[in-house]
Amino acid sequence: MPALLILLSARDPMDKLWSLRYRREIRAMMVTGSSSADDADICWIQISNSYTDIQGFIARDDERKEIIVSLRGSLSLTDVLMDTQIVLIPFISPGVDAPDGVLVHSGFLAAWNSVALEVLAVVAEELERLGRGYSLVAVGHSLGGAVAVLAAVALKQNFTGVPITRMYSYGAPRTGNSTFAQLVNSMMGGNAFRVVHANDGVPTCIPPSLGYHHHGIEYWQRYEPASAEHTVRCSREGEDPQCSASVPSGGINEDHMTYFGMLATTPFCW
């Protein structure tokens, strides 16, 4: 089974990247920057659910004072079945108080809810033990990116005393309706980074005609190589006709499997 890569930008899409190599389960993690760092000082806990096959990890970086919830993209048939459950339903999840009219992808919500209590419990325990000063980060690629958006909202509402909660998604499809997008935009503001690589077809594979709407802020890497100069910061509203929404959807393609010049199947440490 080929490995995939989840990317997490530290402060900016062009900054240092966290990366994770995974197969059926978490196998290894490293930090990539100017050089490899096989001995990254990070503690982590694997999260998974056999019914939805959602996979990921919760990491703690004591140097950066971050607790990171990272979620895997589609890999198995079960993941694909989650992807295809596109009926919009109310955002009902542990600790989430969503306004009336907020609707989200039923498959993505089922995936998040299958691990939500576990994730929230671990994060709560870590925050209580560590005290103040740690921020929360949710990150994911593809399916994992969509679930990370739901996780970010849940983290933000469950841990109101945490000063900063950030969300990074890479190649994520639309996750909910326009009311959900407004909720994410108002709650996350500039701390939501929705990254799209060139002609990646996954972010547009679920069309607005089905009632879906992207949240902001999109960062569209339009040209190669990956650089700040080749990346456009799009509208805060989410659906910017000058950004990736201008490219017809091609579904899963080469651009979906590569972000910031890193191929999803690149072998890293074990």
Task: Tell me, briefly, the overall form.
Answer: globular
Total domain units = 1
Query: Biggest sheet, strands in spatial order?
Result: 5-6-7-10-11-12-13-14
Tally the helices.
4
Q: What about the largest sheet?
A: 8 strands, mixed
Task: Assign the structural class, choosing from mainly alpha, mainly beta, alpha/beta, alpha+beta, or little secondary structure.
Answer: alpha/beta
Radius of gyration: 17 Å
CATH level-1 class: Alpha Beta
Terminal residue distance: 15 Å
Sequence of secondary-structure elements = EEEEEEEHEEHEHEHEEEEE
Q: What's the CATH superfamily, by name?
A: Alpha/Beta hydrolase fold, catalytic domain
Give the strand tally.
16
CATH T-level topology: Rossmann fold
Average pLDDT score = 80
Uncertain runs = 1-41
Second rung of CATH, namely the architecture: 3-Layer(aba) Sandwich
Beta-strand level of the residues, as a percent range?
25-35%
Helix content: 10-25%
Identify the notable features of this structure and list them briefly.
270 residues; single chain; disordered N terminus; four-stranded antiparallel beta sheet; 16 strands; globular; Rossmann fold; alpha/beta
Q: What is this entry, summarized?
A:
The protein has 270 residues and is α/β, with parallel strands linked by helices.
